[in-house]
Amino acid sequence: MIVVLTGGTGGAKLIQGLTHEVDPAQLTIICNTADDFVLHGLHISPDLDTIMYHLAGLGDDAKGWGIRGDTYGALEQLERYGAESWFKLGDKDLATHIRRTELLRNGVSLSAVTHELCRALGIAARLLPMSDDRIETRVETGEGEISFQEYFVRRHWRPEVTGVTYAGVESCRAAPGVIEAIHAAALIVICPSNPVTSIGPILAVPGIRHALQKTAAQIIGVTPIIGPAAISGPAHKLMLAMGVEPSSLAVARGYADCLDGFVIDADDLSLKDAIESLGVNVIATSVRMNALSEKRRLAREVLALARQ
Ligand code: FO1
Asked: What is the pLDDT of residue 39?
């Protein structure tokens, strides 16, 4: 069994590659939910949905999120009514949020809702939220504290960040099956997702980091950073705000207590020795994934590093 820890768009690419290289039924994906928020009265789980749509073959590869070919009629109408329209919810995507919200209001847990949605979409892999409890990434800026989606989408990651916290994380519990999956895995892949706002919240869920330290599984991470900047998104800005100079070395240091192997970009070959001195096997390759062939090649390299 292969367990994958992931956020949204960066992780979805590697997962797409993995689903072509191994039987998807072998995959258990533990997904960040600290980006979740409520808009138009609906519970939105952007990372779960990004992964779910990609697993179902519905994902919009160009945007990295949402459903391919979706339309925005409902959003246009909402805008006419004066509702918020900065978060681009497509018509089909809205159906996911309506159904999820309805089930949650009926007392169904987020993991059971996710299972139900995945079953309906014919997904063979197992997709688990990191927790059924509410955890929210809060971004502290010079202009006050805002949610991650407000920072990322509404404000285009412009405000200066002074800190990031995961509200509610101390009292949350890992979702059913998460700790068991980590212990039962032969391989665990930490996706090239934002270390502060995607992987950070997963590792902060009580019991998950400890399980990663104790599991017999090989744990392989893939960097989301090339040189001093994220491949996409604001990871480098958020690392700086957490007092860390952004680099692949810094990401590896953050995971070092769990890692067996780490994949960095060939441009960062000069960091290989420093990362290996943390007791981690390193390969340097191209970690940019645009075409499916690149996603599959990186997935194969991760699998090969685990076998070494
Ligand atoms: N990202 C954007 O940059 N702009 C959007 O309008 C946007 C809408 C959106 C709708 C549904 C969904 O599931 C994801 C969406 N995303 C959007 C992506 C998402 O907010 C981020 O990529 C993740 O939260 C970062 O992990």
From this structure: 98
pLDDT per position as a tens digit, 36-48: 999 999 999 999 9
Name the residue of 71, 87, 96, 150 whose CB sits within 8 Å of the most ligand 1 atoms, as the mutation to test its pocket: 87
pLDDT tens digit sequence for 113-129: 999 999 999 999 999 99
* CA dist., res. 79 & res. 86, Å (int): 9
Give residue 276's pLDDT band: very low, low, confident or very high (50, 70, 90): very high
In angstroms, rounded to a whole number, what is the distance separating the alpha carbons of residues 281 and 277? 9
- Asked if residue 65 has its Cβ within 6 Å of ligand 1, the reply is yes
Spacing, Cα 277 to ligand 1 middle (Å): 37
Q: Is 240 touching ligand 1 by the criterion CB < 6 Å?
A: no
Q: Residue 102: CB partners within 8 Å, gap ≥ 6? A: none
Tell me, what amino acid is at 148?
F
| 271 token code pair | 């960091």
Q: How far apart are CA 16 and CA 248, in angstroms?
A: 23
Q: Which atom of ligand 1 is nearest to the CA of 50?
A: 13
70 lines ligand 1 (CB under 6 A): no
0.85 exceeded by the pTM? yes
